[in-house]
Design brief:
Structural class: mainly alpha
Distance between the termini: 33 Å
Oligomer: single chain
Order of helices and strands: HHHHHHHH
Helix content: over 70%
Number of helices: 8
Number of strands: 0
Strand content: under 5%
Radius of gyration: 19 Å
Length: 225
């Protein structure tokens, strides 16, 4: 009963805060994970991993901006809110998604003020042909790999390892590493965004990654109930 009351209070606080801000696009990580479970609820184990990962990220931000009292208070309260969301009884996945997304939107607002780029709402499609956002593209590929690893560990623990096609996962990881190495190799040679050859290479890397993501999702959902 206490957990239910605390969750209601948490939703109320987040709803008030959210109504005062501009509506943001949906979170990439939630969209991707939900796309893997179109006909069933996302496993609780996976939602727990999602929140724990975000708590770790908040702790890192807390340490980075510990000298700013206002930011420190915000990140500290954000961590508490995420922990509360994790501990509280969830009435539905939809309520969880809404609360989680609104908490993260608070983080995005503060990151913007602190000069940190927002890649929470970017997808492989939104950055597909933007060759001037190379660093964000590299971060995005790594983020997808992290999501897939989180899903793989969850499904493996649930005895559903067959849902994850490791051949595709290995190819995605290899492509992400190639992308990172390409950046390191060319960083001191010439300006990547000014090179037509580099733009073509980036385009092809992203095209392959996007296609493999579609194949991964199609294979994964094929085995759902």
């Amino acid at each position: 009963m206490k957990n239910t009351i605390r969750l209601i209070l948490l939703f109320a606080v987040i709803n008030v805060s959210y109504s005062e801000s501009t509506m943001m696009p949906s979170l990439r990580e939630l969209d991707f994970i939900k796309s893997l479970y179109p006909r069933e609820d996302v496993p609780d184990m996976l939602l727990t991993s999602l929140v724990n990962r975000r708590i770790d990220q908040v702790k890192t931000l807390y340490e980075k901006f510990s000298s700013y009292k206002d930011s420190k208070d915000l990140y500290n309260n954000t961590e508490q809110s995420l922990q509360l969301l994790l501990e509280s009884n969830r009435t539905s996945n939809a309520d969880f998604y809404k609360a989680y997304e609104r908490i993260v939107d608070r983080i995005v607002d503060v990151n913007y003020i602190m000069g940190i780029d927002d890649n929470e709402h970017m997808t492989i499609n939104t950055l597909f042909e933007d060759t001037e956002s190379y660093d964000l593209q590299a971060i995005l590929l790594s983020a997808y790999i992290d999501d897939i690893e989180m899903v793989r560990k969850c499904e493996d623990s649930l005895g559903n390892s067959y849902r994850v096609d490791m051949k595709i996962v290995d190819r995605l990881k290899s492509l992400s590493s190639q992308f990172q190495n390409y950046r390191s190799h060319n960083a001191n040679g010439f300006t990547i965004k000014a090179s037509r050859v580099s733009q073509s290479t980036i385009y092809l890397c992203l095209w392959q990654f996007r296609l493999l993501l579609k194949q991964f999702t199609a294979t994964f959902t094929h085995y759902l109930i």
